[in-house]
Amino acid sequence: MYNALNSHQPKVVVIGGGTGLPVILKNLKNHHVDITAVVTVADDGGSSGVIRDYINVVPPGDIRNVIAALSELPQTVLDLFQYRFNSKDQFFAGHAIGNLIIAALSEMENGIFDAVQYLSKAMQVDGHIYPAANEPLELNAEFTDGTTMKGESEITAADKMIKRVWVETHDKKHEPQAVQQVIDAILDADQIVIGPGSLFTSILPNLMIKNVGQAILESQADVVYICNIMTQKGETDNFTEADHVRVLNEHLGKNFVNTVLVNNREVPSEYIDHQRWNEISQPVKHDFNGLREMGCRVISADFLELKERGAFHNGQEVADELMNLIGRPNE
Question: pLDDT tens digit string along 186-195?
């Protein structure tokens, strides 16, 4: 537990991927904390997937968004970094400039980890951004019907109930491993934050890297899970909050989640544009008793932000609660 009388910044490690991670990081940046973002490298969709297919680098999309969230550069520069070509050019159409920069640096620096450290300095990042591994990983899933499938987008599109997921290197000659800086950050953390994000395709790919999962189990930090507000089609249909945590615990073989942040504000069904946000289906069901049976402290509050006809986490409210949990007054 962080002591406010101490002069050191509390160390917060946030693990995940997808669109939820930058929202939390951008708001945590406003607090006097030492942030480390551990970002998934198992994405295979969109511009990231096309770049990965061409030059076999770690998919850069999630990393790009995290860099933009933690950067201190002017917004005009960030807008350029995030700009996505709408040209009809066969190669550039749909690509974000930041993805191309990260891909180029990965070749120049012989790996994604050093590339991101170099770019973090150039982009004046407030904190640390660590790819979960220094090489692209392939996500695999086994479904409850016994079939298996490879690839993040394919797994979600299969629309089957997932039993478990794991990650592999491309050559399958060695186990995926995180670099030592990732492990050190987890072991030295005051707080480890998991989520929000797609349970099986954004969060678990990080935890399934063996030394990452082991470090989380060994850490003395409070492990906080930010539960998704909505279920995700093809991944967590009809899930309760306890179902999310149960899946996390089963994958690491131990009840390791200490605290769960749960949104308690009702999502107005008439507001949600289900056609636009076709990856979501319904609000995650409450099961506070199920969470407590797994040893979780439950923090239930209004974490909802309604925008663009969708339901999202209010990053400021979540960041404020994370600071409350480590005993630091909000600033």
Answer: 999 999 999 9
Helices marked H in the chain — which ranges?
20-28, 46-55, 61-70, 75-82, 97-108, 112-122, 152-157, 180-187, 204-207, 210-218, 241-252, 288-293, 315-325
Residue 145 shares a structural domain with residue 248 = yes
Of 115, 130, 145, the one marking the end of a domain is 130
Task: Write down the pLDDT at residue 136.
Answer: 84
Q: What is the value of pTM for the model shown?
A: 0.90
Residue 115 gets the label, from left (phi > 0), alpha (psi -120 to 50) or beta, of alpha
Q: Quick check: 178 and 209 in contact, CB under 8 A?
A: yes
pLDDT at res. 278: 63
* Cα angle value 179/181/183 (rounded, 5°): 80
Q: What is the pLDDT of residues 124-136, one digit of tens each?
A: 999 999 999 998 8
Write down the number of H helices and E strands in the chain.
13, 14
The alpha carbon of residue 171 and the mean position of all alpha carbons in its chain are separated, in whole angstroms, by 25
Q: Are 183 and 265 in a shared domain?
A: yes
Pair type for strands 304-307 and 310-313: antiparallel
Question: Is the domain of 185 the same as that of 109?
Answer: no
- Give the CATH number of the domain where residue 193 resides: 3.40.50.10680
Same domain? For 195 and 275 the reply is yes
Whole-angstrom distance, CA of residue 238 vs CA of residue 281:
9
- pLDDT under 50 in the chain at which residues? 1-6, 45-56, 329-331
Beta pairing partners, 34? 11
pLDDT for residue 328: 56
- Total structural domains in the chain? 2
Domain stop point among 130, 161, 191: 130
Return d(Cα 105, Cα 112) in angstroms, integer.
8
The predicted structure's pLDDT at residue 126: 95
Regarding whether 161 and 16 lie in a shared domain, the answer is yes
